[in-house]
Amino acid sequence: DVQLVESGGGSVQTGGSLTLSCTTSGYTYGLCMAWFRQAPGKAREGVARIGSTSGTAFIADSVKGRFTGSRDDAKNTAYLQMNSLKPEDTAVYFCVRRLWGVPATMGDWGQGTQVTVS
User: Fold this and answer.
1) Rounded Cα gap, residues 98 and 101, in angstroms
2) Secondary structure of the chain: what % helix, strand, coil (to 5)?
3) Structure confidence by residue, pLDDT tens digits, 50-77
């Protein structure tokens, strides 16, 4: 099984920045790397999708202009740069590796990393 490990979460004050990393044990080139988040009591939300050559293929309206997705396929790693953080960004952030065109539920998921903004 492919393993995904997120890191870089933590606690930060409003307006601060964090960079999340997601390193996989499998290849990433040509696959969709995505970030989701889930806040307590709320539905899971797609945050970003990043292609190997297309760059950020999707960014949620709620984070547009503040978050940037990127990847380094040579390192099998995806990133989520988060700037101007707000309390409503508090959530567990998950990384997903999947084929393009299939639901995220069919992809490989990391265990998540907590981001808390106060």
Assistant:
1) 9
2) 5, 50, 45
3) 998 877 789 999 999 999 999 999 999 9
Q: What pLDDT, on a 0 to 100 scale, did the predictor assign at position 86?
A: 98
For residue 28, name the pLDDT band (cuts at 50, 70, 90): very high
Secondary structure tally for the chain: helices H, strands E: 0, 11
Instruction: Return phi, psi of residue 87, to 5°.
Output: -55, -35
Residue-wise burial string across 52-82, b where 16 or more C-beta atoms lie within 10 A, e elsewhere: eeeeeeebeeebeeebbbebeeeebbbbbeb
Chain segment 40-49, per-residue pLDDT in tens:
999 999 999 9
CA distance linking residue 95 with residue 78, whole number of Å? 8
Cα–Cα distance for residue pair 67/19, rounded to 1 Å: 9
